[in-house]
Amino acid sequence: MEQVPAFVEWIQNTDLSTAIREGGLPYPIIGGIHLLSIALFGGMLLVTDLRLLGWTMRKRFVSDVMNQLRTWKWFGFVVVVVTGSLLAWAEPVRLYKSPSFWVKMALFALVGVHALVFRAGVYGHPERLDKAVTRQAKIAAAVSLLLWAGLIVSGRLIAFDASFDE
Amino acid sequence: MNAAEWVFPAVQSVHFVGFALSIGTIAITDLRLLGFGMRRQKPAELAADLEPWTRAGILVMLVTGILMFSTDAVGYHNNPSFRFKMTCLAVALLFHFTLHRRALRRDLPSIASKMAAVTSLLLWTGVVAGGRMIAFV
Asked: What's the pTM?
């Protein structure tokens, strides 16, 4: 077996990792919650971004749509990240060797960069977009959609990487 | 579709985007009926705004779902999780285009419309959970 760093081995050998990996039901249940929160969070995210692009809810103010969905988006995001972390904790060795996992983590880091870059001009002050959606906001929405589509694709590809065939 | 290794996960990814779009937008209307968000819009207005995207998502979900089913039709047919998922899906779709739609037309949320919202959320949860379990049963 290819060598992995000690901390990856350590995670793999924790009780929590073993319990999720080998417990039978926990893994698919956590995976199911992960998927459900993708549906919930993904739906909210799509509606926000599509509103910024002017493709839905055009009669509603941007700030109205964004402010009302904010709490639920955060809720979905937290559940996605927590369940995703638990799934990763259960399979650290396989994930370490999975190229798709690293692509997914890189995209996830870019989501953070995206949030920082566009906070001041777009997401922090949606009411400023009520009169007219700026080009910057449309770019933010398009990039956000691409990043999350990439996260879904790379996430799904993990299960098909060689390290998960063993 | 069984020919190249990347085709199945690619189609599956599109399936995920499709259900995020459809189930996500349906969940928004359900949360509205329950009084948990988007309260400044009437349920009917919200539903009218979102329905085209819900339908687009359902279409994407069904087309990619049928493609994946076709790669191993017998295997899926015999899989109990798959059967559970299909039962939930049939009821969920029927519900969405009948009672759920009617519940969204009412301006004042009633007990009945809240029950419709909970039923809708449970049915779609069953679809996703059943789908996830296919790989494990």
From this structure: 0.89
